[in-house]
Every structure is written in structure tokens, then in C-alpha cells.
């Protein structure tokens, strides 16, 4: 994942175009930067927020990756999202000021902590910031609907191919390789997210490798035939 040091500010962060500073001028970025607190790194399996906690901050991912999940009354976990650098965590809590899901680090991650009280006040003064918040929330809603469509209407192979090509596209957006990347989530996590068993995930990965579409070495995925993978996702 992207590696950034703790002193980086909005003005020189490579993820700014995907995050809250998008389309803000230098003055706007500087004003936003004054309210942001640089969060200490959290480590693999550390929980960032718990479901039911009051919304105090949004969190922008600077480096590393995390997963968000819910737990039902029977204690069954359901993964609902994977977060990469540039993503903002916490929008699900805006409706009732309570987090609706848990968020846990998949690896060491650096975050920017954005206090909601300060962000609300600043957004009132900066329409561009408010529009970007709406844009990011709209993107989350679209992604959720896209996931539902993937789960409801596609075969197991289509689901996994869609997951891999979407992940590759997200890496490309972040200036990272979309042809070779590391999966920070486990196969059990991927299966949980897609509604598939670990055995099914492993079988399909092996089949895609045998067909020369991808090459998998432990957690490293090399996309050998990206257009073929995209076709399989349809």
C-alpha cells in the first residue's frame, strides 16, 4: 500500500484528489489542514471504531488498508467494505450520529482524524468542501448498490473476477500498479464479502491461474490478461 510519513499535509498528499481536499484551492486546503489531527498508526487487527459508538470524527486513510463489517445478533460477521488510501471512513454514521459498523486494520495503517464539529463548521463556510462530502457519500452508495448487484445476479466466478478488477481499478486511481498488487485481506475475508466459501475462492483463483488470466503467489496477484478478467466479471 501507499507509504506516507506522519508530517504530510493536505497540500502535498498524493491522495488529496480522492479525499476531502479534492478541488479545494490552496487556501481551502490550508484551512482544512488546520482541523485535521494526524492519528497515530494503528496495527493489524486493531479496531478503529465500534458499531454503536457516537460519531466524533471521520477518518481519512493515508496508508494501509482496513475492513468494515457488521455483526448480527447471532455473532455472525459480514464484511461490507474494504478501505484503501484516500478513502474516508465514517459516513455511515452521519444519519444518526452513531457508527453502524466496526472498522478494523488489515495491516499497519496511518489515518487523518477529522473532528465532525470542526468539519461541519468549515463546510458551512466552504461550499466546495460540502460538495466533496456529498460526492464521496454518493460514491459509497453507488458502491453498495453495485455490490448488491454483484451478489444477486452473478456467478461465483463473475463475483471474484469483478472483485479483482475493481480492486485493480482502485489501485490505478491511487497511482499504484493495477497489474501487480498485494491482497491484504484473507481469502476468508474475500469470501465473506462476496458470499462465497474459502474453498470456492481458492478453486476459482486456481482456475483463473490455469487459464493464464492471473498469477497468484501467496498474497501477490499479477493480472496477466486484464481485458479477459474484465470480460469474466460481466
Automatic annotation (TrEMBL):
Residues of the HTH crp-type domain: 154-227
Keywords of the record: DNA-binding, Kinase, Transcription, Transcription regulation, Transferase
InterPro entries the UniProt entry points to: cNMP-bd_dom (IPR000595), cNMP-bd_dom_sf (IPR018490), Env_Response_Regulators (IPR050397), HTH_CRP (IPR012318), RmlC-like_jellyroll (IPR014710), Tscrpt_reg_HTH_Crp-type_CS (IPR018335), WH-like_DNA-bd_sf (IPR036388), WH_DNA-bd_sf (IPR036390)
Segments traversing the membrane: none
Matches recorded under Pfam families: cNMP_binding, HTH_Crp_2
SMART domains linked to this entry: cNMP (SM00100), HTH_CRP (SM00419)
One term of GO molecular function: kinase activity
PROSITE patterns in alphabetical order: CNMP_BINDING_3, HTH_CRP_1, HTH_CRP_2
GO annotations of cellular component type: cytosol
Keyword Kinase tagged: yes
Stretches assigned to the Cyclic nucleotide-binding domain: 20-103
PANTHER family assigned: CRP FAMILY TRANSCRIPTIONAL REGULATORY PROTEIN, FUMARATE AND NITRATE REDUCTION REGULATORY PROTEIN
Name of this chain's protein: cAMP-binding domain of CRP or a regulatory subunit of cAMP-dependent protein kinases
Lineage: Bacteria, Pseudomonadati, Pseudomonadota, Gammaproteobacteria, Alteromonadales
Amino acid at each position: 500500500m501507499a507509504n506516507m510519513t506522519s508530517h504530510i499535509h493536505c497540500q502535498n498528499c498524493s491522495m488529496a484528489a480522492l479525499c476531502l481536499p479534492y478541488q479545494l484551492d490552496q487556501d481551502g486546503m490550508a484551512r482544512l489542514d488546520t482541523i485535521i489531527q494526524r492519528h497515530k498508526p494503528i496495527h493489524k487487527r486493531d479496531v478503529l471504531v465500534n458499531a454503536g459508538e457516537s460519531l466524533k470524527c471521520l477518518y481519512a486513510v493515508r496508508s494501509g488498508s482496513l475492513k468494515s463489517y457488521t455483526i448480527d445478533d447471532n455473532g455472525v460477521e459480514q464484511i461490507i467494505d474494504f478501505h484503501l488510501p484516500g478513502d474516508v471512513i465514517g459516513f455511515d454514521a452521519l444519519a444518526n450520529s452513531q457508527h453502524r459498523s466496526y472498522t478494523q486494520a488489515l495491516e499497519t495503517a496511518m489515518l487523518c482524524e477529522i473532528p465532525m464539529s470542526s468539519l461541519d463548521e468549515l463546510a458551512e463556510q466552504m461550499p466546495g468542501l460540502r460538495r466533496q462530502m456529498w460526492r464521496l457519500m454518493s460514491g459509497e452508495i453507488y458502491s453498495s448498490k453495485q455490490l448488491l448487484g454483484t451478489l444477486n445476479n452473478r456467478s461465483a466466478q463473475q463475483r471474484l473476477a469483478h472483485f479483482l478488477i475493481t480492486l485493480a481499478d482502485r489501485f490505478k486511481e491511487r497511482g499504484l500498479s493495477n497489474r501487480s498488487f498485494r491482497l491484504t485481506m484473507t481469502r476468508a475475508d474475500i469470501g465473506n464479502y462476496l458470499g462465497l466459501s474459502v474453498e470456492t475462492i481458492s478453486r476459482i483463483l486456481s482456475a483463473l491461474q490455469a487459464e493464464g488470466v492471473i498469477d497468484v503467489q501467496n498474497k501477490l496477484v499479477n493480472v496477466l490478461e486484464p481485458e479477459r478478467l474484465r470480460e469474466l466479471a460481466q
